[in-house]
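Service request form, structural biology core

Requester: graduate student, group of Dr. S.
Request type: structure prediction, single chain
Budget code: on file
Notes: please return the result as structure tokens.

Sequence provided:
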Amino acid sequence: MRRISRITVAGAATASLALALAACGGTSTSSSSSSDAKDDKGLAIAYDVGGKGDQSFNDAAFAGLEQAKKEFKYETADIEPTDGETDADKQQRLESLAKQGYNPVVGIGYAYAAALKGAAAKYPDVTFGIVDDSTIEAKNVADLVFSEEQGSYLAGVAAAKSTKTNVVGFVGGVDVPLIHKFQAGFEQGVKDTNPKAKVISQYLTQTAEEGGFSSPDKGKTAAEGQIEKKADVVYAAAGLSGQGVIEAAAANKVWAIGVDSDQYAQEALAKYKDSILTSAMKDVAKAVYNLAKSVEDGKPETGIVRGDLKTGEVSLADSNPEFADDTDLQEAINTAKEKIISGDIKVKSS
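Core staff response, request fulfilled:
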């Protein structure tokens, strides 16, 4: 059952809110035509930079929304970001969703922190969630975070076992603490597995506004530079920009390691899939869905909700048969995984 009663929005108010949403970014809504469909609204998500179609972070969130919509048979909404938007724009978007009756409302990415904090204070009866930020302390906010460094450590093991040149690369989208976790875990995994291996690390931009998470051309250029320096495995933690890294790897017949979603299985990347060794995944879909389910069950999640190797929400994809069937590689990865879970390996996050 739903935790709170829904707000009934009059026709004029609905039109007004729709205009407000249009000003803040594109939106799509969907409702079930089933006879047992609820008369209220459910999960809404506001995308991070790159938007839907990034084959990575945002698409994983959309998968969670689709699962909730199918199971709970309610109306959902997913909203695109706009170029050059401010925190005020983001807050208006979140507040518009809350005012329309959506619950929970989730900001996909740390960039929503300030906006979501303000919106949550204005709508205390609505549950809000934010992915990749743990700074908001409020009774109606769930901080959906992950131990990305753990999955990245395993990616480092995979890279170290797969390199023939003893040179591997890391491409980070934006030089921020979140992406430092990916870099730190990856470098540690490489060095612990093959001390002779060299890691070339590079960030595309200093800020998200410069396109670090949304520019495949920047990712491609960075990867090409690392490949010229003999890197034969390149790991990207760069959102949509990672597609350029994968393209460069395929063109140069070296390995790419994807991120967030299983990029080997992504239709838009199908022509490059034979060059995608694995992906360091974090189950954003599950985190988003679980938050929606908690609200549906009347026991909304709040506070820090962390996914890691132990919970299964951080992992390596094994869709590529060449990766999955490599016994020596799988043994090394499983050994490292067990040691991380037991605490024998402490993975650095910076």
